[in-house]
UniProtKB/TrEMBL annotation:
Belongs to the peptidase C14B family. It comes from Botryotinia fuckeliana (strain T4). It holds the Pfam family Peptidase_C14. GO terms for biological process: proteolysis. This is Similar to metacaspase 2. It comes from the Eukaryota. Residues 11-293 form the Peptidase C14 caspase domain. One of its GO terms (molecular function) is cysteine-type endopeptidase activity. GO terms for cellular component: cytoplasm. The lineage of its organism: Eukaryota, Fungi, Dikarya, Ascomycota, Pezizomycotina.
Length: 383
């Protein structure tokens, strides 16, 4: 079936890196491998293909061949074919291909699951990539380089979303194998000096000179797994000690939010609020961050009229339901709401909903809704 050239398309680049090895001064390779990064992007790809019918998907992964020892005398290669490895060259080539093949109005979704790093907690973030050509085993993708590549897409009128399921800075201690952060290695950085910043469009050059280009997006949106001084973690969600299924906490709840909400029909803002609550509940001290515009959908524009006034609510231990908004957002005592499941837009069309009108009590930053039936104790927004 021929593709409709007039209809906006979605282009995706999914990067998942489990296999990490770093050359030590002793000549041995230190294993810093993760467990859930490849699974993160594999499941996102499956959802995009089977449910969203996205046709333009590139996936670059580095899977471990098996259980790794802490130290190894030899460099180990991923099980994937070299053209599918998440190397610097392959990632840059994939981003350039997307920019050249996409047309104005198309959406671009980029997802990275792996280690992050930075020189210190005040320095810009870098993504840690697998690299077979380096004698260190690693290579960094600088924030300024990524800004340059994304700014070219914005210049072409593409709608860009970047999700980074990794730690942002060295403010966390790397003493837990479930944390997605690697200590900064100056030898890795020195081996590949960045040259992209000098080619930045003047419109974006001031962004590259800021503290962290990835926290100052212009024309696109970024979601990170945690705040600048927090841990981004992996977690076993399988509840089966004999068959553990690790995921990045951000990636897991992002995919869950898409599945529960219908994905393309929900604004990025509402998805972000939902996954933030779920992440905080699972991993105390990990708070996803959102930078840039978030009024669109993840895979293009949201249909007109959907989710115009949706607000997320949370059921508290005392069975009260709390709004994730308050007086400073314009909510007052006596305001009425309809309660409906997350992502359900039926209330927009006047169809039956699962709860009657709600009244706001004790309006503050997080007001409480009274007279809530508790037959469906799921998190859901109100309209």
């Amino acid at each position: 079936m021929q593709e409709d050239e007039s209809k906006p398309n979605c282009h995706a680049l999914l990067i998942g890196i489990n296999l990490y090895q770093q050359l030590l001064p002793t000549g041995a390779y230190k294993d810093w491998s993760l467990k859930g990064c490849v699974r993160d992007v594999q499941e996102i790809k499956e959802y995009m293909e089977d449910i969203l019918h996205v046709k333009h998907i590139q996936m670059l992964t580095a899977s471990t061949p098996g259980e790794q020892s802490c130290l190894s005398a030899d460099f180990i290669h991923p099980i994937e074919e070299p053209e599918l490895w998440p190397t610097y060259a392959n990632i840059i080539s994939s981003l350039d291909y997307i920019n050249s093949s996409a047309k104005p109005g198309d959406s671009v979704y980029i997802h990275f699951s792996g280690h992050g790093t930075s020189k210190d907690s005040t320095e810009p973030m870098m993504l840690v990539l697998f690299d077979r050509g380096s004698n260190r085993g690693l290579r960094y993708l600088q924030g300024s380089e990524l800004t340059h590549l994304l700014s070219k897409m914005v210049d072409k009128k593409l709608t860009v979303t970047l999700v980074l399921d990794c730690c942002q800075s060295g403010g966390v201690m790397r003493n837990d194998s479930s944390i997605r952060f690697l200590e900064y290695d100056p030898l890795v950085d020195a081996a590949y000096p960045s040259s992209h910043e000098q080619y930045l469009n003047p419109t974006y050059r001031h962004i590259a000179a800021s503290c962290d280009t990835l926290r100052n997006p212009s024309g696109y949106m970024i979601i990170t797994a945690a705040g600048p001084h927090e841990k981004a973690q992996e977690h076993d969600f399988s509840k089966n000690k004999h068959n553990k299924q690790y995921h990045g906490v951000l990636s897991y709840f992002l995919l869950k939010a898409w599945k529960e909400s219908g994905g393309p029909t929900v604004k990025q803002k509402l998805i972000y609020e939902y996954l933030s609550i779920r992440v905080r509940k699972t991993c105390q001290g990990q708070n996803p961050m959102c930078y840039g515009t978030n009024i669109r959908g993840f895979f293009g524009d949201v249909p007109t009229g959907i989710n115009q006034t949706s607000i997320l609510v949370v059921i508290k231990p005392d069975k009260n339901i709390q709004l994730e908004a308050g007086h400073i957002h314009g909510i007052c005592d006596g305001d009425q709401f309809f309660l409906h499941p997350f992502g359900d837009s039926n209330s927009e069309s006047g169809e039956p909903i699962i709860a009657k009108d709600m009244l706001v009590r004790n309006t503050a930053y997080t007001p409480i809704l009274e007279e809530i039936p508790h037959s469906n104790p799921a998190q859901c927004p109100v309209s």
